């Protein structure tokens, strides 16, 4: 047995031999504290910005004002990405734009939570600073404020 292995097994026996009960108690205390003080899964499914930022931050106030003033949120947290390194065909680019228009016009009844969609394709005339051209299409989805994070994800995969 190597010296390193002897030392590590001696150390492991010492720690687990003497400290096994305090370690178990610490784990139980940590689990109880997490249960009592951390938000549950249901509380975090809405994707509220308040879970990430202090309640008095400018970002919180801006998002609240945006949801009061506008029918569509000012920012999109959900983006559908379509990428082909060989280039997206003209038909694929057209489908991206057509689908975004259909979403914005609410032509998909099962996606009623989508307030609007904004398509962007890296076409040189639209995005001259893009490093590639005709390879990527993005569709920014804007959801109504009442739509939770789980429903947003399900809608984007639809």
Highlighted features:
about 160 residues; 5 helices; 3 strands
Strand content: 5-15%
Mean pLDDT level:
78
Question: Topology as H/E string?
Answer: HHHEHEEH
- Name the shape in a single word: elongated
**Numbering strands along the chain, what is their spatial order in the largest sheet?**
1-3-2
Largest sheet: 3 strands, antiparallel
Helix content: 40-55%
Number of strands: 3
Number of helices: 5
CA(first)-CA(last) distance: 58 Å
Q: Which ranges are low-confidence, i.e. pLDDT below 50, for 5 or more consecutive residues?
A: none
Rg over CA atoms, rounded to whole Å, is 25 Å
Look at the helices and sheets and give the structural class. alpha+beta
Task: Report on the architecture of this protein.
The protein is α+β, with helices and mostly antiparallel strands and 158 residues long. It has helices at 3-37, 41-44, 58-69, 90-104, 149-157; strands spanning 78-83, 114-121, 136-143. The chain is 47% helix and 14% strand. The longest helix is centred in the first third of the chain and has 35 residues, at 3-37. The chain starts with a helix and ends with a helix. The mean pLDDT is 78.
Briefly characterize the structure:
With 158 residues, the chain is α+β, with helices and mostly antiparallel strands. It has helices at residues 3-37, 41-44, 58-69, 90-104, 149-157; strands at residues 78-83, 114-121, 136-143.
């Amino acid at each position: 047995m190597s010296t390193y292995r002897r030392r590590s097994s001696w150390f492991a026996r010492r720690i687990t031999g003497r400290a096994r009960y305090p370690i178990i108690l610490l784990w139980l205390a940590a689990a109880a504290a997490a249960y009592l003080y951390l938000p549950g899964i249901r509380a975090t499914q809405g994707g509220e910005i308040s879970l990430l930022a202090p309640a008095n931050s400018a970002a919180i106030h801006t998002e609240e004002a945006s949801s009061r003033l506008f029918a569509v949120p000012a920012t999109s947290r959900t983006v559908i990405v379509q990428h082909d390194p060989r280039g997206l065909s003209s038909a694929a680019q057209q489908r991206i734009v057509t689908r975004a228009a259909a979403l914005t016009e609410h032509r998909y009844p099962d996606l009623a939570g989508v307030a609007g969609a904004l398509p962007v394709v890296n076409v040189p005339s639209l995005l001259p600073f893009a490093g590639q051209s005709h390879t990527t299409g993005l569709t920014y989805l804007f959801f109504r404020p009442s739509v939770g994070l789980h429903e947003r994800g399900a809608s984007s995969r639809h």
